[in-house]
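It is worth pausing here to work through a concrete case rather than discussing structure prediction in the abstract. The textbook approach is simple: state the sequence, then state the predicted structure, then interpret. We follow exactly that order.
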Amino acid sequence: MPLASESNWVALRYRLVPDHLIGEILSKKWIDNAIALLVMVCVVVVFGQLIPEFFTAGNLQTTSRQFGEFALVCLAMMIVVIVGGIDLSVGSNFALGNFLTLALLNLANLPLPAVIPIVMLVCAAVGLVNGVLIGYLRLRAFLTTLVTLIIVRAIVDMLLLRYAQDMSVGFFESDLWDLMGLGHIAGLPFSFVVLAAVAVVGHIALTRSRPGWRAMAIGGSRRSAHNIGLPVRATVCGAYVISGMLCGMGGILYAARLSGAGTDTGMGLEISALTAVVLGGNSLGGGRGSVVKALIGAVTVLILTNGVLRIGLNSGSGPMVLGLTLLFAVFIDVRWLKHRDKLLSKLYVAPTYIALQPPRPIAAGSGSPLALNDRLSGVQTIGLGVVESPEDVILDDDDFLYCGTRHGDIVRFTPPGYQHAEVFAHIGGTPLGMTFDKERNLLVCVGGMGLYRIGVDRTPSKLTDETNRSAFSVIDDSRLRLADDLDIAPDGRVFFSEATIRYEMHDWPVDALESRGNGRIICYDPRSGKTQTVVRNLVFPNGVCLAHDGQSMLFAESWACTISRYWISGPKAGRTECLIDRLPGYPDNINRASDGTYWVALMGMRSPALDVALRMPGFRRRMARRIAPDQWLYPNLNIGCVARFDDQGHILESMWDQGAKNHPMITSMREHKGWLYLGGITNNRIGRVRLERADPGWSSYQSYWGRQ
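Step two, the predicted structure:
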């Protein structure tokens, strides 16, 4: 009795909070930002208590005006750090921009609209020099930008010595100049508004554009980026050019605010900017960072440096505090990178309570339709050693056989013997589920990339890689991480599964350890181009198959060992109901059969030990924290089985390969003209077996779309 009560209490505890909400709260991105946010809040609170009138409107307005200038330099540093570099010349370039602005206005008498682009181009030229030396000539970024710092600072000092007195005779005046220096837009300082616009553009560019993704990839590993064909040198050079332009922009705003230039302008700014970037959570090693992190670090450093001065410490205290802060930030960055996986395995992995019912009997001679047999012992193999990880297989109306590989290729075998193989298209990622649309285009779910289409001309194109964000999500869960399997409704809508929103392709076993509702079913409508989530909180949804009636869709939940039906039209539209439960293994892809029934692949068999552990989330959490990942309890994925069931959820027959010799793991199957073709994500072959009572003229494409 105590054990039963304890189990009920555990179940209640883990069901009080929605599964998807816990997953979002423990998101890796949230953990990455937590330290930076905590440090920023602590600094603001401490100096807010130490400094009188710290939170007054006047002080906040002055600070925000300085923040606009300083944060632009921080963004300049962040861009080069992301690509794996460093720019120690930002302070000198900032001073150069400040001097040129005042000189061109007061001495050359050029109009302000002409001065702004000239100054930004000159500062960009300094960045171009750094970019060429570092990106194309492969010089060390630290030494190169240190030399640039010295040279540019010397040039500014010489120019000041020659023209400082001439510039002090008169001051440039115009309404736009006054607006830039001391004016407001909608109650906000002009420099802050400029920073906000630059930050928005930068965030979109880094997170939603190809150049931004390439910059991240190059910062993560330049060698790997070069090997896959990314323009490493041009991207690195471009990052330094953008850095120079942002420094010039900051120098212009600084000149507008103070209308003066001195030898100490921008002095030590490179250290402050670097501290802000690293303290905000951007990695010094490159490949990891964001605009938001840079801005968080900029706020922290600006308040820290200004606060030290305002509380009356001596002149050497500011640099000392800044240096100690940089040391702390670098220490956190290095230690975090070293122990990140260990910490995430302790905090991020969040198993939940799940009670699986006893499985259906599979013992030989039990009379069960799932009883063990050797019907797959005579499986014929196709492409043995030619393909790797053919997770799904499909045939077209001309009997050509297609499969994906772990190399990102779609391979096509030529009938009738299927001895000749060719790369039909290279799509990248990990091709998983596949289906043909009415126009004979091949639609593919690609793990880590989304939903893609390969045209009849073999040209791949992206259909969608994101869906609508959850209403109560703590983080942005709109991006598709593990698009898995798909099918098309009669009206052209594409329904596909995303197995998990928390883990990438290579981490899917950890999702099994959690057995949490991290998955969802998504619908893409080609008529409107919109994508939306239709079913949430599923336990690793996998196979997706439109029912023969065209009004409902079947999908498998692997770790829950169930198959469910989702009604897409008719009087029950929008409803979900369980069709089959208590499966003895983990269901994967589902496909239609020629007699009006369905085939389902069981990619592995349940084990009593894991079934018991699923009722013990605390045990699985301790396991994730205390032992190595290769010793965790995972689903058994080494026995192949295919089962057939009807629309009422009755299992009719099964085919096994008990010895796991011919087709060790089965993740998909496709009936075509009297044969059943088998795929497996851990296999190096495609299998096929003759079906005795199948229609020899039936194919999935013909039965669904009809002959073209």
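Step three, interpretation. Residues 317-347 form the longest helix (31 residues). The chain is about 45% helix and 20% strand.
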